[in-house]
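Example S7 (structure tokens).
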């Protein structure tokens, strides 16, 4: 069966924690999370999360390659948590330019 993927995936070192800021569509609530990378392509990043994620915007606290963020385009439950796909998007500004940092 031929692959329908636009970009081939490559393994991502899942032992590396990826701090992210997520704003899910419909909630408009900021979540600061740490996720694990599963696979990566020129178009996006596959991740594992301990919490369920819905479609929304994601900012990476540290760039992934040249990417500052993207959009969660799918998510599903798995045995050990949740899996999700992030499509990279061009994000020229930092999260601080868009969001007020929450006081802890």
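Recovered sequence:
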């Amino acid at each position: 069966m031929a692959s329908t993927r636009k970009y081939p995936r490559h393994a991502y070192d899942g032992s590396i924690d990826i701090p992210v800021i997520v704003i899910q569509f419909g909630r408009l609530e900021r979540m600061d999370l740490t996720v694990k990378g599963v696979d990566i392509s020129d178009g996006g990043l596959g991740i594992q999360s301990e919490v369920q994620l819905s479609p929304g915007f994601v900012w990476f606290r540290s760039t992934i390659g040249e990417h500052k963020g993207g959009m969660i385009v799918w998510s599903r439950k798995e045995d050990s948590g949740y899996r999700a796909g992030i499509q990279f998007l061009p994000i020229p500004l930092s999260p601080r330019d868009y969001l007020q940092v929450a006081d802890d």
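Notes on this example. Strands lie at 10-11, 17-24, 30-40, 44-49, 56-64, 67-78, 81-88.
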